[in-house]
Queue: 2 jobs
Job 1
Amino acid sequence: MIPVVAMRLLAAAGLAAILGWGCASDTPRDKTRLAVGMRFEYPTPNELLAPATLSYSAISNQFFLPLMAERPDFRDGPPTWAPGLATDWEFSEDRLQLTVRLRQDALWSDGEPVTAEDVRFSWLAQTDPEIPWSYSLYKESITDVEVVEAGTVRFHFHAALPSALADVSTGLILPKHAWEQRPFAEWRGDPSWFFENLVTSGPFLLENRTPGQELVLGRNPDYFEDGLPRLERVVLRTASDGAALTNLLLAGEVDVATGLGATDAQRIANQPGLRLIAYSNRQFTFVSWNTRRPWFQDAETRRALAMAIDRQAMVDTIWHGFAEVGNSPIISSVWAHDAGLEPWPHDPPAAREALAAAGWTDGDGDGTLERDGVPFRFELATFAGAAARWDAMQMIQADLRAVGIDAQPRRVEPGALIQRMREKDFDAAASAFAIDTSLDLRYAFHSRSIPGGDNYAAYDNPEVDRLLDSFATRLDPSAGLEDLHRLQRSLHDDQPILVLWEPLTLAAFNEELESVEPNALSPLANLQEWAWR
Amino acid sequence: MIRFVLRRLLAAAILFLIVLTLAFAVVALAPGDPMAPADPRIPPEQAERLRALYGLDQPLPVQYLRWLGAVILRWDWGQSYRTGQPVAELLFDALPPTLLLAGAALLAQYALGIGLGLIAGFRPNSRLDLSVRVASLVVYALPTFWVGLMAVLVLAVGLGLAPAGGMTSAAAFELGPVAAALDVLAHLWLPALVLGMSMAGDIARYTRSSLIEFQATEAGRAARARGLSETRILLVHGLAHAAPRLLQLASVSAPLLLSGAVVAEVVFAWPGLGTATLVAIQSRDIPVVLAATTYGAALVIAASLAADLLLTRLDPRIRVE
């Protein structure tokens, strides 16, 4: 009898221990550490092997630094650059060379100094075709990286280009002494090798990694900025689902959640102790009208479509207000945005009139407009899995139905749809672009980008081509502001694409955290300065 | 018996090969290019280099034979397109959490199901029996996704009785072995219970009907005639009578548990095969999708085989020929 009682007591104690362990406790917060929830798993500290996403680079930037970093001041003017591993830099008179001096106090976490050899090694890796890095195109302007001395490096360019500083600063400086032992051809074979051979020059180093679960960053004691980072440890936890991530935040199991959806943000918005931050991410979602199709050949019809579609309703219902109606591919948070442009209003009667003026009438009385015997009926495609866009497709269908147009929404696998859009084998399709601060939009609107390229609408306007070419070669982008305004007005009038919305990136933070300043370049932009109050 | 086992193993191997081939065919024939860069600024030549690197520039039959050969001869599933990590390594990390969750859910399912079945079987057609049957049906009808979300919201976020997600607490690598085990168990019980509940209703109904059936058999009447207590009759002899059928149910449960685990893992941020598969599908990471599909199929085949073999041991009415 006694063993049975003992076993029951033991079982009860075990159950109490498990439940007790899992219960939320009131123990005081450990103010040296922070838990951040993210919706992805960090694949490798070698950014040349990772998919090109801001989320991954937000973490890579904690381990490694660029020579100089773009400041998040793109709202005020063309990009400016803050020193990273470089202290200062200087162009030659012909702007074909850039001499960069490195910090003398920058060390790798194993005590080795960061030198010009690391800079040249990084450039060799970034341009090696056997790796191949997604953004190697940013290095095409650089013909050589010369080691002048340990603390000085010189970049040589094939031409004087406005993008020179952006090209140099794109990509992080990698540790030559630690990674050169592995030939470039073998880098893709095993990206986790770089976890095992990680030395860092950034504010953090890697303390521990549990695949699928978390990455633990520890303070780098050799980091050159005195007193930074302010946190001893940052735990990056993975939850691939937005609702699951929100639950972790609400339960206090993470202190920060990034990459939230609008519905998740609504749950968090009024929670005590949490602060929701919504900020521009330099993206815009749009519908491309294939101008090779009979329905979209004339600008008058495309303008009528813009007036028939209620974009504000999309922002209100799909995004719960966490987005803005867009009206230009140079989005409203960028310095060159033409604030004088008014979005086409949602005005169905005006849309009907414009359609009639363009020759679209319902001659057979079936409720659908026709012109030259062609009914206004087309396929409106978007990427499978893009939930917000799919919802928008339903709303567009209803709006267009009201003016006599039959749009048929369809979800297509993303790779297949991109291929079809590049081959101009589609009617209309919704997709999204993220712009960089070079504002070089030739890939999206220049007639050279029609065959097989990302000018999906097959938009061909010689004036727009001229403006795009003119701006792309200006050494001083701010002098090209008038060109950019004219470009936006042309696109606004011609409507080859209808910009639906500019989404905001949503992140939530514990209110007791201070100095948190996420921006379009990184949700963890100044992580080394974050601290608990 | 050995011939029977060998025959079943051979059938399982052929089935596995068919699954491999079908999985490859479905994924390969799906439209789209997994290497198509999402960022239009990335030139198409980059995608071509990656395609060549992963052998996607070869004709489909060549790709298939190379892939099949690597899988069968070296258990090499290739590299993840998303992370570059060897797929076998990636799934090796993801499999134990899924097996732990599915195993715990199986335990929860049988503990709940048999318990409820016994309660109902003791007094057939009583109010208690009716309540158990209705409750079983309701729980069976509720989607795991919804039950999971509600459980997290009420028990974890609302009442703080369990962690809201994950398999461990943050920075659990610092804990000692006992504390680490307790930490995992604290994270495990709620997802396991939610996943187990979905099938517990079935077990309860089978247990109940087996117990009622047993009482009408000669063995049941004989046990009563020998003066055994009702409790002993049902708990010992009744359950022994129900065991083969319940075991058969385990092989049916395996695929349901695995598909349920995908859902539960997402809701509870559990880092297993389901989460890995979902992320792979979303990012069109074909090698991982293929391997995860095949792992899932292999687990189901293995569970079915194990249940069949156990059944031949447990049920004297089944003869191996």
Job 2
Amino acid sequence: MKFFTRKVGVAIALAAVASLGLVACSSSSSTTTASSSTAFPTPKGGELNLYNWTNYIDPAQLKAFTAETGIKVNLDTFDSNETLLAKLQAGATGYDVIVPSDYMVAQMVTLGLLEKVDVAGFPNGKNIDPNFLNVYWDKGRQYTAPYMYGTTGIAVNMKDPVASKITSWKDFFAAAKGTSVDVLKDQTEVVSAALRATGVAAADLCTIDKTKYAAAQKLLDTFKPKVINSDGGIERMVKESSMVRMAWNGSVHRMTVDNKNIKYVFPTEGLNFWADNLAIAKGAKNLDNAKIFINWMLNPKQGAVATNFTGYANAVLGSGPFMDPAIKADPAINTTPENAKLATPTPNCPTAARDLYTEVFTSWTSSQ
Amino acid sequence: MRTLFSRNRLVNLRNFPFFTAISYLVYFILYVPLVLVIIYSFNQNRTAQIWTRFSTRWYTDVFTNTDVVRSLKNSLIVGSAATVLSTLLAIAGALGLLRMGRKGSTFALGLLGAPLIIPEIVSAVGTLGFFLFVGIPLGHFGLILAHTAFCVPFAMLPIRARLVALDRSSFEAAADLGANEWKIFTWITLPLLAPGIMAGALLAFAISLDDFITSFFIAGPGSTTLPVYIFGMIRSNVTPAINALSTLLLLVSGLTLILSYALSTRTQDRK
Amino acid sequence: MTLDLSLPTAHDDSEAPGKTSKWLAVAPMAFLSMTVAIPLIIIFVYSFLARPELGAGVVWKFDPTHYVKIFIQDRLDGTRSFDTRYLKVIWNSFYYSGITTVATLVLAIPIAMWIATRDPRRRVLLVFLVTLPFWTSILIRTYAITQLLDEKGVLGKIVSFLGYKGHFQILYTPTATVLGLIYTFLPFMILPIYASAERFDFRYAEAGYDLGARKMTVLFRIVLPQISPGIMAGVALVFIPGLGSFLQPDMLGGGKTNMIANVVANNYGQARNWPFGSALSVLLCVITLVATLLLSVAARKRKAKRV
């Protein structure tokens, strides 16, 4: 899924990432050294069951892994974090390595669905970008390794008079009156954008103040997009079936390859930042192979291979030299520090706030 | 002369205004989208609707895609197992139903036909809950169980139709000749039922291969079926590779159907 | 379908071929009790349970409020009010499925009659051509519709060639959903009507003409009543599964056309509210059952009238 829909360019500048609010407590460096003394497993063949987003890893990369280690990889794919969670909770015990996003990692840890393997203590754990080491969803990288990351902003077609003037979420929601607008079918993204547009601060996106949601709902009541869908958005923008779209920055990169009129806008109220992770499912049958795989993916060269295929940035130190220059030079994501400051992690709200999100989102979709 | 006249009159009487036109229109509607997919599958351009030139690159994409091959294999495993199981259950069900009283058979038909009535989304999430509750892991085994369940009524339809239409004299003759129950069953009932069983099995297989909703909810590690994979493909990125894969599947189902038609008309001829 | 009353059941032992036992039916019945009946019971139980703080699943605590929430809304300003949102979704399900039934009926009667009046050898081919799309994956057929309706695709080009200047948008509208449903369900309407029409004795029609009736009178007064069992079966085969449609609104509706199944799926997915999804599932089941019962009662009445 993410290959085309979330293709992010180059790594956001380190300084910028630090300001994203990802870093939890800067000082508390990892509590990892103790277990790193236990010998890291060596490949003995066998299998590995990988459960990943559709089209989110290079098949050639998996073949290379098998060639190097003798471990056969079985790939299954999912289309949303919720599907992944539902599968694990419904007792799908055969997955070894899974790829949940930030907030989903936090929930899975709480639910006891992940193996605590001390990823930071892996031989290649030292390659994890320090800015991605103490993230809120996995402090000190006890459970997961970083995979790809990016932001959710606005794709606009500069040919269109309405679209070209968009600078904020407020403009975005208003644009539907003047031109064709598409939006992601994603409760969290839509409602948080509406909250931002009505003046809620990034830190307050999980508020349980109902008046704030009422204001967001009022804004959404006036918003009639052409399509509410997460599929085929790139094609619609490239064909100019729609002129504006809420989109993952990487998907916008992919659009610009085929249509030079398209530009990525960082809305002035701020936007959501997401990061996907490699994790090991609780009770994984091939635990050693899973560790070997994650460690292998933290190799700078492999991090770059992943970026070159998916188009998204990775958080593996030293991967830069191996990366595709075209991706590095992407103007859509050559993030300025000011733009990077606008990005905050996707809100991971407790049930009370999430129910309010559901309430607003359901009201809006059913009023279309 | 007279026959010619009456046939003309007959044909004329049987035709109603616009019926021919509407029929052609319906055939046109039924095939236009499919033909379009076939045409698009040969388009070199990544955006399917913008034609650049003829190309088979998307077919190369499909054939070199190991995930497609693997999910196809899963579909075939689940489909064959569910076909065998559901056909056996359907034979037993059809034979048993014949000997039931009115009340019993109404109840049994209601239960055995339930998958036809219950909305698939409900049985899909229900099965998910059931597996979670009982502790059946998501995977091939669960998929086969669920597919067998909704295939039973489809497999049973043609078997029952055939059974009800059977000529009784053969059974009576066999019984008169002193054949025991088992012999009658294996030597007479089964061969006579064979066309119905074949049709039922084929229908079950097609239904299983086509299933999306149930498989989507209960597929597990290593058991992604082809429709679930295709759905992911459509969700993630619309490339003409989907058109190429669709064309191949259209070809397969078309050939299967032609084959089964040929087989059934042949058996009819022999009779 | 249990509605298909054309299948005779032999209740009389002496009629049954071979010596089979009614106990044979126990095997499939036990299997379907396990794989169909128990999941339904579980859905029913789930709909009365609470949801966990995080994630999917249920908590074993009695909570009957999910049914209330289908009809009553706790508004953001703190008040409670009657909630029309899910009623609208339920209405959509009936409305779209109803339109689909009527449209397929209007198309299916002519083609079924037309095939039935062709040369018997040609009929095989004509029926085959109707069934062929039914044997191809519903996913692919629905996808094919998206390719057809695309505003930049063939249809869009034809429309603009014909002089339409505005923004051509059918894909991702309720219209597209209904068109997709009609396309999917058309063979289900044609085949049972054809089965009836094939058995129609045209001497009745001739008698009608001889008595001076016009074509339309013959069609409505003689032909249609005769093929009504096929029509009833077709209506059942289209309307009932139509109520539970998921893929067509999902892929063609642009996320704006919700039918009950889509809301159920969403509650088992993104919204992560299994008990509420279960309550809606129970509602969908009840609706489907009532529709089935009404249709079979109507079919039986018709049959009784004719006999």
